[in-house]
Amino acid sequence: MSAVLVAVASVKGSPGVTTLCVALAACWPDPAGVVVVEADPAGGDVAMRFGLAQSPGLFSLAAATRGGVTPLGSRVENAQLLWRHAQVLPGDVPVVASPPDAGRARGALAVLASPEPAGRLAPGPLLAAAEHPGAVLVADCGRVEPESPAMPLLRSADVLVLLSGAHADDLAHLARRVPEIGAWSRRPVLLLADRDAHRGHSIAAVARELGVAPLARVPFDPRGAAVLSGRRSTLRWHHSGPGRSLLGQSAREIAELLAPRGPDPSAGRRSDRAGRRRTARSANGSNGPDVAGRAS
Fold first, then answer.
1. Are 11 and 143 in contact (CB under 8 A)?
2. I need a labelling partner for 291 at 20 to 30 A (CA). Which of 86, 118, 153, 230 fits?
3. Which CATH number characterizes residue 196's domain?
């Protein structure tokens, strides 16, 4: 099965990019090779939200790459290196978490997301993992700017998901950036995020205003967002799973629209999934139930 690189970003504010990335990974139709990569130049949130260790993560992956590990390895070894620097969230979702400090995050991205002359990802663990058969990289690229060190990820993405609020101020910032952003990816997708109970403009109104039809809306769901952000909620990830929430159901529908069409995963793929989870757990010395307990 082909690999998929999904880059998720926003233009203005904080419409919930990190939470959406976790939700997409947790609800992906074939989760065998899914991993979340926090590539936000402003610094990461996942480690703090879920009580993860500071390492392994994006910074340790960059250190290994800087030390000359990946250029000497095969493409498969480069891809496996990324999973060795992942930790596991509740629901067996691997994540390569970024340090919260923006300087360290940008330094790591300068190593891992260095561009080729055309602006796409240069060879390294991110590109190798993004091209590994069956892999699905969901990259949290934060707020998108032309000078962002995450730009090579955006330009290399199979799907570029732009998350935006649907209120007038959100759309005013987005309108002037649509032509520019649309040229970055072979498949740009717009999602509308309901940031409160007042949903803002409808999908039809946004399509008329921007000339771009949004793929879907991400609902305002504080309880579901709490579960997917490691906060306390009346919902429990390890009891009901994120798919039971309104946000989780929406993420599952969106993931099904984004995922490439292909055959059902084989038993071998499921064994590969278990092996990757064991690799991530052994790298950070934690196990699934302990992490899930912290998230509840």
1. yes
2. 153
3. 3.40.50.300
Please list, in sequence order, all residues whose beta carbon lies within 8 angstroms of the beta carbon of residue 235, skipping any fewer than 6 positions away: 223, 224, 226, 227, 244, 245
- Neighbour tally for 232: CB within 10 Å: 10
| Mean confidence (pLDDT) of the chain | 82
Task: Band the pLDDT of 232: cuts 50, 70, 90.
Answer: low
Structurally, how many domains does the chain consist of?
1
Domain that holds residue 247: 4-295
User: How far is residue 141's CA from residue 148's CA, in Å, rounded to a whole number?
Assistant: 9
Structural tokens at position 205: 């109104």
Per-residue pLDDT, averaged over 234-250, amounts to 69
Contact in structure between 61 and 110 (CB atoms under 8 Å)? no
Say if residues 41 and 150 touch (Cβ distance below 8 Å).
Answer: yes
Which pLDDT score is estimated for 237? 56
Q: How much is the pLDDT for 67?
A: 63
Residue type, 6: V
- Burial (0-12, 13-18, 19+ Cβ within 10 Å), 109: buried
Q: Which of 142, 190, 193 is nearest to 167 (CA)?
A: 193
